[in-house]
Amino acid sequence: MPVDNSVVYEDEDIVVYRAPSDEELEKLVKELIAKRGRPLSWKELRKELSGIVGEDRLRKILVRLIERDEIVEMIDGTFGLRGMEEWYTPVKTKKRVRPLVPSKFRKRWGPLIESAGSIAAAIQYLIDMRLGKRRPKPR
User: What is the pTM of this model?
Assistant: First the structure.
């Protein structure tokens, strides 16, 4: 997934690309999620961007995008574009890692997690809701 005009060196055996800037990387992450049409897990993003960006830099970019509300960390730990949380059916996970931006995560998902009792119960509630198995809780 090279960035435009990023070839530094090229011969018949090898092509060397310039690493993308933070702004280009932010755009790549958002385009990747938009192209897939669903939130992506950390593992999927890391695999897709391997060779382009390291884990620490990817984490930094995701944090920046979350803080600017361009990316939403879903309740199951996946990352989606703003608005995807309205229709996305979360996936049950064996191990939920801690949120990248805990304050944003608590603000978005805290009330649901508190009313359900746990993150796992909140995920199950959303799955049931999205599949039409449960009525919405009264507010």
Answer: 0.81
The CA R_g of the chain, rounded to the nearest whole Å, is 18
Token pair of 1 as six digits: 């997934």
Confidence at residue 63, expressed as pLDDT on a 0 to 100 scale: 97
In the chain (139 residues long), the average pLDDT of successive 10-residue segments reads 68 84 94 96 93 92 96 95 93 80 93 92 90 62
The whole-number pLDDT of residue 25 equals 94
CATH of the domain at 86: 1.10.10
> CA angle 55-81-24, nearest 5°?
50
**pLDDT at residue number 137:** 56
The candidate with the shortest Cα–Cα distance to 92, out of 75, 115, 73, 113, is 75
The residue segments making up the domain with residue 55 are 15-130
Rounded Cα distance, 11 and 23, in Å: 28
The alpha helices in the chain, defined as continuous H runs, are: 22-36, 42-48, 55-67, 102-116, 119-130
Distance of CA 93 to the CA centre of its chain: 15
Q: Say if 7 falls within a structural domain.
A: no
* DSSP 8-state class, residue 40: B
Domain assignment present for residue 136? The answer is no
